[in-house]
Write a structure and sequence with these properties.
mainly alpha, Farnesyl Diphosphate Synthase, 15 helices, globular, disordered N terminus
């Protein structure tokens, strides 16, 4: 174990020495704590979901408040993740420049920042949107930190399969912000992101499998034969394809959207299948990149279709 292990984890947060960074660098470090790119992806799924729930364009104010609350909750969760994982982040090449590793921010300050974001998220959503949305947002954080980060990530090769459910909660927040309740359609949307997460993340993990192995994190590509990883990526991609197609009748999105799910699903399947003949990190990163394109296009098509069909 590394020398940082004794103080790692939320339970061992202390006032570790912080390097003398300037104000600008500190601000950038706090932004980095929230993992903005992950937040962007979560918000991409929230807005179209609101369009489907409303069957029209929801008010700009409601969209802005829901996105703000969701971003605060996700940012807080990501910051807590960095606090707990700072020991392994120092080992992994991909994460060794994170602010808690470089010393730009102390673990105690990062934890206070994270908790503040969660409180702000709950209060904002509760007072301006509704209580259900607020509870769902902070529940996703509790699951991501407690179940994925603190339990499964370091103990099970199924970590991202189960823990990835936290990333599917924003669609529930988006739906409930409009309707005040949940239904079958948001559950299907939740399932779509749940199934999308493993092939998306495993493709990335193929590229960084040595990093995970060095940090003793049992991410599937680091502990299993690549042929087995590829088979699971393909299986999850097929299941995602089927469930995405099922969204068309469940959400009353029509044949055009069904056709779009067929085309996008076939394209994703082709990318996943290509790993059978070339499971290299380079090819895996292409699959990873396409997975983001797939999800973005699927949700954009969903949102546009909902508004066009129900003007």
């Amino acid at each position: 174990m590394s020398g940082m292990d004794a103080s790692a984890g939320i339970g061992g947060v202390g006032d570790e020495l912080v390097a003398p960074f300037g104000l600008n660098e500190r601000v950038k470090a706090y932004v980095a704590l929230t993992k903005p790119r992950i937040i962007e992806l979560l918000l991409i799924t929230t807005i179209p979901t609101m369009f489907v729930a409303a069957r029209r364009l929801p008010s700009a104010g409601l969209v802005a408040l829901t996105l703000a609350g969701g971003a605060l909750a996700a940012g807080g969760a990501n910051a807590m993740n960095m606090v707990y994982d700072r020991d392994i982040d120092a080992i992994m090449e991909r994460t060794k420049h994170r602010p808690l590793v470089t010393g730009a921010i102390s673990p105690r300050s990062a934890l206070v920042f994270a908790i503040s974001l969660e409180l702000a998220s709950f209060l904002l959503l509760w007072t301006t949107v509704n209580l259900l949305s607020a509870v769902l947002a902070v529940s996703a954080t509790a699951f991501y930190v407690g179940v994925y980060t603190m339990w499964l990530k370091r103990s099970s090769s199924q970590n991202i399969v189960i823990g990835g459910a936290a990333g599917a909660v924003p669609v529930l927040v988006g739906w409930s912000s409009v309707t005040g309740h949940l239904a079958l359609a948001p559950v299907v949307l939740f399932g779509i992101i749940f199934l999308w997460t493993p092939p998306h993340f495993w493709a990335l993990a193929v590229r960084y499998r040595e990093d995970y192995a060095a940090a003793h994190v049992p991410m599937l590509p680091a502990v299993a034969d690549l042929s087995a990883v590829v088979k699971r990526i393909i299986l999850y991609t097929v299941a995602l394809w089927v469930l995405s197609a099922a969204l068309a009748p469940v959400a009353h999105l029509g044949l055009v959207f069904f056709g779009i799910t067929m085309v996008l699903g076939a394209a994703f399947f082709r990318q996943a299948w290509s790993l059978r003949r070339d499971p290299s990190p380079k090819r895996a990163m292409k699959v990873f990149g396409f997975s983001i394109t797939y999800l973005t296009l699927l949700f954009l098509a969903m949102g546009i279709t909902a508004v066009v069909r129900h003007p």
